[in-house]
Automatic annotation (TrEMBL):
UniProt protein name: Transcriptional regulator
Sequence ranges assigned to domain HTH arsR-type in this UniProt record: 1-94
Molecular-function GO terms, alphabetical: DNA-binding transcription factor activity
InterPro entries with a match to the protein in the record: ArsR-like_HTH (IPR011991), HTH_ArsR_DNA-bd_dom (IPR001845), WH-like_DNA-bd_sf (IPR036388), WH_DNA-bd_sf (IPR036390)
SUPFAM superfamilies: Winged helix' DNA-binding domain
PROSITE patterns: HTH_ARSR_2 (PS50987)
SMART domains in the cross-refs: HTH_ARSR
NCBIfam families for this protein: HTH_metalloreg
Domain of life: Bacteria
Pfam families for this protein: HTH_5
């Protein structure tokens, strides 16, 4: 099976907390006007415009003009690539958590033995 890929653009886009928050808001609402999105995020339009440019470049949002408004919509498909790539590390974390559990069980056993 080929290794899942996630583009650098997607990683860069989701690395910023404001962009992650924008994606979360857009996941709950469709075709959100840019002014409304800025209000929900508590950021100014110039800053939000820069963040939306990054999200558009990564293919995570689409922009549609409706009269004088710009409406944004989440395009979640690139997030699937990121999810598939991160899933490669699931076994690693399962193993690490299992080792930690065994260690803590041994420590708890030593404490109850009076050591």
């Amino acid at each position: 099976m080929p290794r899942p890929v996630a583009t650098e653009d997607v990683f860069r886009a989701v690395a910023d907390p404001t962009r992650r928050a924008a994606l979360e808001v857009l996941s709950r609402r469709r075709d959100l006007p840019v002014g409304e999105l800025a209000g929900e995020l508590g950021v100014g339009l110039p800053m939000l415009s820069r963040h939306l440019a990054v999200l558009r470049a990564a293919g995570l949002v689409t922009e549609q003009r409706s009269g004088r408004q710009r409406l944004y919509r989440l395009r979640p498909e690139p997030l699937r690539e990121l999810y598939d790539w991160a899933a490669l590390f699931g076994e690693f974390w399962t193993e690490r958590i299992g080792s930690l559990r065994a260690y803590l069980d041994r420590q708890a056993g030593n404490e109850t033995d009076g050591r």
